[in-house]
UniProtKB/TrEMBL annotation:
Any GO MF annotation of the entry: 5-methyltetrahydropteroyltriglutamate-homocysteine S-methyltransferase activity
Keywords: Amino-acid biosynthesis, Metal-binding, Methionine biosynthesis, Methyltransferase, Transferase, Zinc
Protein name per Swiss-Prot or TrEMBL: 5-methyltetrahydropteroyltriglutamate--homocysteine S-methyltransferase
Record's keyword annotation contains Transferase: yes
Start and end residues of each Cobalamin-independent methionine synthase MetE N-terminal domain: 26-338
PANTHER family recorded: 5-METHYLTETRAHYDROPTEROYLTRIGLUTAMATE--HOMOCYSTEINE METHYLTRANSFERASE
Species, as recorded: Arachis hypogaea
Annotated pathway: Amino-acid biosynthesis; L-methionine biosynthesis via de novo pathway; L-methionine from L-homocysteine (MetE route): step 1/1
Cofactor(s) demanded: Zn(2+)
Length: 784
């Protein structure tokens, strides 16, 4: 067989000698789709804007897929995945495969094309998109299937088999990957109009009907392996949900015969009960486990593994950017080999590499020392194979020894360790810091000082970021304009924002955050212990990517970060000006974090840095300080048994940031989600004076907590309008919302504010929306 490949660096056609597969027992769960420089993002967006054709888009995708397959084949990977590419999302792909298209998209059967597919993902002129939600505890969002008893499942997307054939034509025999049928259903929701109690798992037989057709197709195309991702197995499942796995795979077994079947799990260990279920499934040849996050998996395997089956051992972390500790991994693998047997062990990534950055090669700004500590997806592929080779007795000594010295340098580097910070953070553990005075007394003291009207109005922090503003920041970063020019421009922007808020008659002002590009990056750039990449993008949803900072060392604050701008802003008005900070838990959850110490330790360090900033703001005369914890909920562990511990140190870290302030200094926090009914007690335990929260999109879920009798004594501002939409909320509508809140919450703790920051909106939307918000507040104040 000869094969055609696009080379990785130049997109020129070259022919390569056939790859020799089957030498190393190595496997990759899945790979990033966006490309090393977000090629897919730009191709998608240009296609959506009508600037390029479907053919152009397909060409970009084909090149990306080919280069990924080639890269893995060249590295020596034996089990190379296919169908892990996606135009938008792999759950949406599964809905397409099953023909599970909600009727509102008007799909009339046949193969699902871009039109229907992208309408489901993004909506179109007449129909909104399907709902999107977080994929387990990652920052990746998937399109939630909407199902009901009437859904007519049909085999409507041949993408899986097409991709298999596409790779095969290039000389690579791949393992096609599908989201497993049970995980698919467990992550679905009942469609609109379907009874909420409808049992989604009752759709299993119908769904399996289509899976069987796909499997038959893949077999006919020559596939010898198939991978079903069933990460739902790591969740707290009820026994009837576990039984669904048993039922599904025994129903499936005869169709799967003749194929090697891998069931892949990831993101945590599989609970003991689920482990039993999983390893007893019929027709399954191999099991994949996350040995990085699955801290108990090793014990489970030691406790018993079905003989003759393959173990795919995920030792290379797919969720982070650190180089693997190869010798430690090798030890783990050797002990596993003792249990399952030499021929049954396959080295793998802990999960799909979708959740890490793509290729370190494109990092031109990181210094060599830090770079030597890192491995992005492309490097992880090489690590996996090096481990497999070492297991087979062909250790690449040079590779192992350079890995060992990189690890040693990371351990001993003075850039990583700051003894004072470590000591201070360690001292916080196990104690319970909180402000001395209780919140009611503090609110009284603050009111005496601030003298705010009832139902005080405020906004969440950012104001619209204009093209002009972004240009100023960019040019300053590139040294194209002087510091003086930059400061002048930003101050002018702040003045505009302050004047506007005074004109609107808002009570507690913000400076608008014009100096910030991103609420985490801005602080990371000023704290020590953080590094930034140029191309370290990770897909968040569709074509959207985030570029998390890398926390590599002990965190400290060399100098004040926001005091200059906040004091400047305060000097422009007599009204209180909120200091605006990002909280430690959010900084943690939106970064790539250290794997050489517990997350709690890193968070405590950040908390101490933010604490210094809070106290400096207070000294500078700022009397209201908002500490955003937008992402507090995101770090919540998947399993209930681990949640209490997380919430404890997360909430503790938040409190540490403001234990040093006087009673008269008012501490606000903000959260951008409303599904926190289950963690409301932790939120109260944060002991902020005022909390502003997203609320307007949530069907009043939030208010129901208080209706059910949870006592809340601090200030609270449930958002009165949705900032994600350009729609301008009418005064009456806002007034009605406020009235609904007043029915549940005391009038003297209620604040009036939008759902979140206004950064993504435009002034022609923001001005009338805020005008109406203040107007509605005034109408209601008169009635109180
Ligand atoms: N203060 C930030 C802003 O207004 C908060 C953003 C957020 O909660 N995501 O932009
Ligand atoms: Zn928010």
């Amino acid at each position: 067989r000869s094969s055609l490949f696009f080379t990785h660096t130049n997109k020129e056609l070259v022919s390569t000698t056939p790859t020799i597969q089957g030498t190393m027992a190595s496997h990759i769960v899945g790979y990033p789709r966006m490309g090393p420089k977000r090629e897919l993002k730009f191709a998608l967006e240009s296609f959506w804007e009508g600037k390029s054709s479907a053919e152009d888009l397909r060409k970009v995708a084909a090149d990306l897929k080919a280069s990924i397959w080639k890269q893995m084949a060249d590295a020596g990977i034996k089990y190379i995945p296919s169908n892990t590419f996606s135009w938008y999302d792999h759950m949406l792909d599964t809905s397409a495969l099953l023909g599970a298209v909600p009727p509102r998209y008007g799909w009339s059967g046949g193969e699902i094309g871009f039109d229907t597919y992208f309408s489901m993902a993004r909506g179109n002129a007449s129909v909104p998109a399907m709902e999107m939600t977080k994929w387990f505890d990652t920052n990746y969002h998937f399109i939630v299937p909407e199902l009901g008893p009437d859904m007519n499942f049909t085999y409507a997307s041949h993408k899986a088999v097409d991709e298999y054939k596409e790779a095969k034509a290039l000389g690579v025999d791949t393992v096609p990957v599908l989201v497993g049928p049970v995980t698919y259903l467990l992550l679905s929701k009942p469609a609109k109009g379907v009874d909420k109690s409808f049992c989604l798992l009752s759709l299993l037989p119908k769904v399996l009907g289509v899976y069987k057709e796909v499997v038959a197709d893949l077999k006919a195309a020559g596939a010898s392996w198939i991978q079903f991702d069933e990460p739902a197995l790591v969740l707290d499942l009820e026994s009837k949900e576990l039984q669904a796995f048993t039922a599904a795979y025994s129903e499936f077994a005869s169709s799967l015969s003749g194929l090697n079947v891998l069931i892949e799990t990831y993101f945590a260990d599989v609970p003991a009960e689920a482990y039993k279920t999983l390893t007893s499934l019929s027709g399954v040849t191999a099991f994949g486990f996350d040995l990085v996050r699955g801290t108990k998996t090793l014990d489970l395997i030691k406790g018993g593994f079905p003989s003759g089956k393959h173990l795919f051992a995920g030792v290379v972390d797919g969720r982070n950017i650190w180089a693997n500790d190869l010798s430690a991994s090798l030890n783990t693998l050797k002990s596993l080999e003792g249990i399952v047997g030499k021929d049954n062990l396959v080295v793998s990534s802990s999960c799909s590499l979708l959740h890490t950055a793509v290729d370190l090669v494109n990092e031109t700004k990181l210094d060599n020392e830090i770079k030597s500590w890192l491995a992005f997806a492309a490097q992880k592929v090489v690590e996996v194979n090096a481990l497999a080779k070492a297991l087979s007795g062909q250790t690449d000594e040079a590779f192992f020894s350079s890995n060992a010295s990189a690890l040693a340098s990371r351990k001993s580097s003075p850039r990583v360790t700051n003894a004072d910070v470590q000591k201070a953070a360690a001292a916080l553990k196990g104690s319970d810091h909180r402000r001395a005075t209780n919140v009611t007394a503090r609110l009284d003291a603050q009111q005496k000082k601030l003298n705010l009207p009832i139902l005080p109005t405020t906004t969440i922090g950012s104001f619209p970021q204009t093209v002009e503003l972004r240009r100023v920041r960019r040019e300053y970063k590139a040294n194209k304009i002087s510091e003086d020019e930059y400061v002048k421009a930003i101050k002018e922007e702040i003045r505009k924002v302050v004047e506007l808020q005074e004109e609107l008659d808002i009570d507690v002002l913000v400076h608008g955050e014009p100096e910030r590009n991103d609420m985490v990056e801005y602080f990371g750039e000023q704290l020590s212990g953080f590094a930034f990449t140029v191309n370290g993008w990770v897909q968040s949803y569709g074509s959207r990517c985030v570029k998390p900072p890398i926390i590599y060392g002990d965190v400290s604050r060399p100098k004040p970060m926001t005091v200059f701008w906040s004091s400047a802003a305060q000097s422009m008005t007599k009204r209180p000006m909120k200091g605006m900070l990002t909280g430690p838990v959010t900084i943690l959850n939106w970064s790539f974090v250290r794997n050489d110490q517990p997350r709690s330790e890193t968070t405590y360090q950040i908390a101490l840095a933010i604490k210094d900033e809070v106290e400096d703001l207070e000294k500078a005369g700022i009397t209201v300080i908002q500490i955003d914890e937008a992402a507090l909920r995101e770090g919540l562990p998947l399993r209930k048994s681990e949640q209490a511990d997380y919430l404890k140190w997360a909430v503790h870290s938040f409190r540490i940031t403001n234990i040093g302030v006087q009673d008269t200094t008012q501490i606000h926090t903000h959260m951008c989600y409303s599904n926190f009914n289950d963690i409301i007690h932790s939120i109260i335990d944060m002991d902020a004076d005022v909390i502003t929260i997203e609320n307007s999109r949530s069907d009043e879920k939030l208010l129901s907590v208080f209706r059910e009798g949870v006592k809340y004594g601090a200030g609270i501002g449930p958002g009165v309008y949705d900032i994600h939409s350009p729609r301008i909320p009418p005064t009456e509508e806002i007034a009605e919302r406020i009235n609904k809140m007043l029915a549940v919450l005391e009038k003297d703790i209620l604040w009036v504010n939008p759902d979140c920051g206004l950064k993504t909106r435009k002034y022609p939307e923001v001005k009338p929306a805020l005008t109406n918000m203040v107007e509605a507040t005034k109408v209601i104040r008169k009635q109180l």
